Structure formats: structure tokens, C-alpha cells
Amino acid sequence: MANGLLLRAASPGLRPAAAANGVSSADSGRGHGAVTIGDSRTRGVALRLGGSSRRDLSFVTKASRDHSGLTRQLLDFQHDTIEEEVGAEHDPFMGLKARFLDFKKRNYVENFSNYQSLAEQQTPKFMVVACADSRVCPTGILGFQPGEAFTVRNVANLVPPYEHGGSETSAALEFAVNTLEVENVLVVGHSRCGGIQALMSMKDDSTSGSFIKNWVSIGKSARLSTKAAAGNLGFEMQCRHCEKESINSSLLNLLTYPWIEKRVNEGTLNLHGGYYNFIDCTFEKWTLVYRQGLEGGSKYAIKNRSTWS
């Protein structure tokens, strides 16, 4: 993302004729092409990456405010059977379809009563904060079954502090802790995390319009701690140290939420860290202790640390 990239409304000469007329396809058959819905006005969008101001790439972006029109199409066609098109063997959804039908046959049907209960309510014991990395699926790694873990995934499995304000992660935490009343929050980090690499690559005084850098900057305290503890090591080892440091930083950030701290103090909620190393397939877990008067005057300690290998 080092090169500047700027998007703006294109000149008429670059606008596809169909799009300019408000029609995206002449094919009106079901399942083919796209349909312009509602107010699809052309809006100029400027996206700048890397701080460059060069305007060397242009095209039209269309935005529609009438998403309800899309939903109406789904409702209209939900009972229709769409024939598979020629070349379906190259459709990436064919494999997913086969897996879903296998899941329905081997899992859903055989555990029908359980799924009917889940349809009425969920009572998970775990809230999991995991990374969005495709190699780190907490359900696959830890074997969570439907209804067992309320999960949110983001870049670098970070938990922002309470004062950071609203985010999808804080919203998920609020629902899991206050409504579902989970008993455990587990933050799962992992080896070779690209988000942590981005965090460790940041300059101390850097400012960026990158969503990634703005997000991972939540972990700056973990980065500083890593530099202090492992600054003499190579970049890869610093990242590995920070991968675990950031988990503990997120655990402490959890305690900045008043309703989480309250439940931890009451003993109804436990905070755990987990680290999945997919290089050698090991999993390390630990539990955070939070109370006044611990050894050394600290309020925090680690207990129940173990490695599964």
C-alpha cells in the first residue's frame, strides 16, 4: 500500500454505457447480471493510501441507499430453484454447497432437537475474541459446537479500551457479558500475525489514513512493552513476543469496561488468554487474576497456565 491511490468520479468517456444509463445489464433473467435499485447516484470518492496526492487512476463508483430493494429481491426469489450454470465446476460456492449439505445431513438432522433448542435461545459459556486470519478459526481449533461460543473476530484479535468508544468488538462484548451473561472471555492470538507485524512496523510518530494501521494502533502499549523487553532481538522474534504481549494488553483493556470489571470482582466472569501456534500446532492458555494486594503490589497475575501439544 506504499503507492498512492486516488479514486474519483470518472470522465464520461470512462463510464460504462450501461452504468451511465442506470442499467447494469440487459439480461433480465433470474440469477444473471445486476439490477440498479433505488437511488443509485454517482458520487465522487477520494481514497488516498500512503499519503500520495497523485491522481492517476479513475473510475465511477455507484452507491445505492435503497438496500431494502435488494432484500425484496431475495424475498421474491427465496423459493425459486435456480439451475446451475454451465461452468459451475469453477464456482467457488459449489464446494461450500457440498459442505453445507453434508453438515445438514450429518450434524443438523442427527442433532435436530439440539438445533431446535438453539433456535429459541443461546446460552454460550464463552465469549471469544479471535483474529480474522483465515488460518485461525477458533471453532475449528478448539472444537466449539453451535451455541457454545459467542465470537467476534478482528485484525490482530485486539480489544480496544472502554474509552475508545463504540466498535464491533465492544458491542459484541456488551451483548455477550450483559445479555448472554457468559462466564468466560477468551482472547486468542496466534503465530505470524499480520496485524501484529503491521503494529511492530509502525513508526513512533506515524500518521496514516490506513484502516489497518489506525486499528492496530490500539496495541501501541504492547508494542512499547515489546521494544523494551525484546528490542535487541530480530524483527520476527519481536513480533512473536508482541503477539503474546498484545493478548495480555487486551485482557487488561477488558477490565476498563465497568460491567466486565464488576463481574470479574464478583467472581462471575473469568478472563483468559490463548495463543495458537500453527507452525507446530500447539495451544497455550492462561487465566488473568485481578485483585488488590497481589505479590509485589500488583493487581494482576497469571494462573492456570498450560500448553497443549
Automatic annotation (TrEMBL):
Keywords: Lyase, Metal-binding, Zinc
The keyword NAD is annotated on this UniProt entry: no
Record-level Gene Ontology MF annotations: carbonate dehydratase activity; zinc ion binding
PANTHER family: CARBONIC ANHYDRASE (PTHR11002)
Protein source organism: Urochloa decumbens
Protein name: Carbonic anhydrase
Cofactor comment: Binds 1 zinc ion per subunit.
Broad enzyme group: lyase
EC number of this enzyme: 4.2.1.1
Function statement: Reversible hydration of carbon dioxide.
